[in-house]
């Protein structure tokens, strides 16, 4: 682990390429949250806010997925342990982003893709 920490990049992000030349989304040995940050180096503000919302108790990703999949013709598609794993992985992603924000600052990690009207609403 270098001075940037386990998840944060110091150099400008370059998309890794697989053997076929296609972009590689995950790196060997990285959690999905670490891959998100180490591959792209940044996260959009709209995505970050949505992930934070899905981590709140009243909007938990697992509950929303269970509700959405309940009406699926092949229900149950995901069982409770799978749904709970979504919440755990979401916490890992948010922790990776938070670690990078603490190290490099919000503006270095979170790309502001929201207009002024959204920024005002997000600040409430």
From TrEMBL:
GO BP terms: enamel mineralization
Domain FAM20 C-terminal: 42-109
Span list, region Disordered: 1-27
Main location: Golgi
Domain of life: Eukaryota
Keywords associated with the record: Disulfide bond, Glycoprotein, Golgi apparatus
InterPro entries membership: FAM20, FAM20_C
A GO cellular component annotation in the UniProt record: Golgi apparatus
Family of this protein: Belongs to the FAM20 family.
Matching PANTHER family: DENTIN MATRIX PROTEIN 4 PROTEIN FAM20, EXTRACELLULAR SERINE_THREONINE PROTEIN KINASE FAM20C
Protein's name in the database: FAM20 C-terminal domain-containing protein
């Amino acid at each position: 682990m270098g001075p940037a920490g386990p998840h944060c990049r110091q150099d400008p992000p370059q998309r890794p390429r697989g053997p076929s030349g296609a972009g590689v989304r995950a790196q060997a040995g990285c959690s999905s949250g670490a891959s998100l940050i180490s591959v792209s180096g940044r996260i959009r503000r709209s995505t970050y806010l949505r992930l934070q919302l899905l981590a709140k108790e009243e909007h938990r990703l697992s509950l929303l997925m269970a509700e959405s999949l309940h009406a699926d013709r092949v229900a149950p598609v995901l069982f409770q342990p799978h749904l709970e794993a979504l919440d755990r992985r979401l916490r890992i992603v948010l922790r990776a982003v938070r670690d990078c924000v603490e190290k490099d600052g919000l503006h270095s990690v979170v790309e502001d893709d929201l207009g002024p009207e959204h920024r005002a609403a997000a600040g409430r």
